[in-house]
Amino acid sequence: MEDGAGMPRRRSPPLHPQIQARDEGAGVGRRRNPRLHPQIQASEEGGGMAHRSTPRLHPQIHASEDGARSTRTSPVESASLPDDDDMLREILLRLPPQPSSLPRASAVCKRWRGLVTDPKFHRQFRAHHGKPPLLGIFELSNKGIVFKPTLDAPDCIPSQRLDLGRYSQRWHYGLLDCRHGLVLVKNSNQSQVVVCDPITGHHRCLAVPSVLWMGKLGGAVLCAAGDHDHVKGGCHPNPFKVVLLSLTSANQPLACVYSSETAIWGNVISAPCRFFYDGVPPTLIGSTLYWLSANDLMIKFDLDEHTLAVISVPPVTGDIQYRNRLVIQAEDGAIGLVNLSYPCFQMWQRNVNGHGVATWLPSKTIDMNTFLGLPSQIGLLTGWLLGYDEDTDEFFVHVRANVYGVQLKLMQSRKLYESNRVNPYYPFKSFYTPDEGMAAAVLDESIAVGSVNMLSAFLKKKKTLD
């Protein structure tokens, strides 16, 4: 700084714009973001404004020779993003798991896109969040197996994007299960089940053992990776298991397990009871699958031991219909049961004492009219339980041509969409990364700026918490 120019006034470069003085003093140098704006080179004479690019996202302020200062408005919030890839990766990992987050970040610049499209980053992103978001519901309609999105824009995944193709045909395929980003359907014409990955479009057809194809068929699909590698909803490259439940002519339950690692079916297992299966999907609690029967029984299949067991459940009484009850996980990890006698949820819990004797005890009764968003003064038999999300403890309830998601632990509800059908619902949860479809859309500068704003807000919040 030359004498007489005044005391230089410096500010922190990460949070404030800076203005650099020109040697000629004819104007003020303006610095622009090379990623969001074109570059304009100043003439050597200094007769005009010099527009210079900067490797940072925000301009800086320096004192000029006469002490003047100038600023310009940035399209993004005033926050400095790190030049170090490791630091930026840690920030991007903390973006929300919703489908639009990573595609928006990938639109900011080539550097960001290189980070968020890296398969290693995808694994880290899924591991960091653990539980993926609910993208929508698969159900069997008059048109076949369809996907119905439950998220609002910009996170809404179009139905056709997760279409099962020829495996969704109404008269040939039926839904059995949906879990860990996979969908299990049965092919009635060819005695097959098909494991579909709607995100990647991959599928695998499995011939069902003839002994299992004699009666009503139920099934479950789940990731077979260990706890270290398994991320619910991010299991696309991992091995999987298929568990099929069938009935003999005498309604005796049979079960068999297929492993994609060995590509073979295991031994057929049976249980000494009469079981009446009506197509309700199973509930996974820990490493055990549970199917409800219409005759006040529950089938328990241990995935580790490959054993079948029979459990008695509280009998259906009053106006409770068989298909208005579901197996759930109780608050302490025990087996639970929920009955819907509208407008009340009746909760049960199975307790086992030190002698191994199990008893069912009513735990609570919840009036649905206390939930925000649900209609009041509902009459008899106007509500139906459609499905259950094991990870979030959310029920799907059909009330007066509307489908609601209800979380009993939080005493909250949300309206998902309108529907006149009362069919079992299969929640589909998965992470959706840029290379899986959305980044192919045309993304303009406003979306890029939105991504920077989102990260800037995160940085400010993190700084406040620190």
Give me the number of helical elements: 5
Q: What radius of gyration results from the CA coordinates?
A: 29 Å
Largest sheet: 5 strands, antiparallel
β-strand percent reads 25-35%
The pLDDT mean sits at 76
Structural class: mainly beta
- Quaternary state of the chains: single chain
Q: Ranges with pLDDT <50 over ≥5 residues?
A: 1-79, 437-449
Which helices and strands appear, and what pairs or packs with what?
Elements: E1 20-21, E2 28-32, E3 51-53, H1 85-93, H2 101-106, H3 110-116, H4 119-129, E4 134-141, E5 144-149, E6 173-179, E7 182-187, E8 192-196, E9 203-207, E10 218-223, E11 240-247, E12 253-259, E13 264-265, E14 269-270, E15 283-285, E16 288-292, E17 297-302, E18 307-312, E19 325-329, E20 335-341, E21 344-352, E22 358-367, E23 383-389, E24 394-399, E25 402-407, E26 412-418, E27 426-429, H5 445-465
Parallel strand pairs: 2-3
Antiparallel strand pairs: 1-2, 4-5, 4-27, 6-7, 7-8, 8-9, 10-11, 11-12, 12-13, 12-14, 15-16, 16-17, 17-18, 19-20, 20-21, 21-22, 23-24, 24-25, 25-26
